[in-house]
Amino acid sequence: MDDDPTDCAMPHDLAQIARFLAVGALNTLVGYGFILAGLFLGLGDYLANATGFALGMPVSWLLHRKLTFRVRRQISTGEIGRYVVAVAISYGLNLAVVTAGRMAGYLEHPFVQLAAVCCYAAVFYLLSRRFVFRAD
Fold first, then answer.
1. In a domain? residue 106
2. Is 3 contained in some domain?
3. CA distance 37 to 97
4. Residue 37 in domain
5. pTM metric for this prediction
6. Taking Cα atoms as reference points, which of 109, 117, 128, 95 lies closest to residue 20?
7. Containing domain of residue 111, as a range?
8. Which of the 8 DSSP states describes residue 64?
């Protein structure tokens, strides 16, 4: 299968996206739960957000590696490095959304956090597929 992003999604692609969404939904619920708990405890937008992502990151990597992208090769330092870069880029976008929400007057608002998580997920899928868990 050609990896040209202009091609229509193939059944394999749709199945992979479905697996990504299922794993991501579970991980998002867990991470969002930590974010809401952090907001409730008074951690503020940024610390609550960082806590949610930090606690969800290792689980996310393992589940996406095994279930979403079905990687069978041995773990490599290159893959781990690519994962860290993908998380950093995606998380940077997440923080940009939180910052934009705050600038618009929505301080410590759950829907701003939800929008930030959704943006993170979209970018993270693309980076995971094309960069982190690519076939070597």
1. yes
2. no
3. 20
4. yes
5. 0.72
6. 128
7. 11-132
8. I
Helix, strand, coil shares of the chain as percentages rounded to 5?
75, 0, 25
Q: At what angle do helices 110-127 and 11-40 cross, to 10 degrees?
A: 150
Is the residue at 111 inside a domain? yes
Count structural domains, the chain.
1
Residue position matching structure tokens 């749709």:
14
pLDDT tens digit sequence for 50-71: 898 788 888 888 999 999 999 9
With a CB cutoff of 8 Å and minimum separation 6, the contacts of 131 are 82, 85, 86
Summarised one tens digit per residue, pLDDT across range 65-110 is 999 999 999 999 999 889 989 999 998 999 999 999 999 998 888 8
Could you tell me if 72 and 125 are in contact, meaning their C-beta atoms sit under 8 angstroms apart?
no
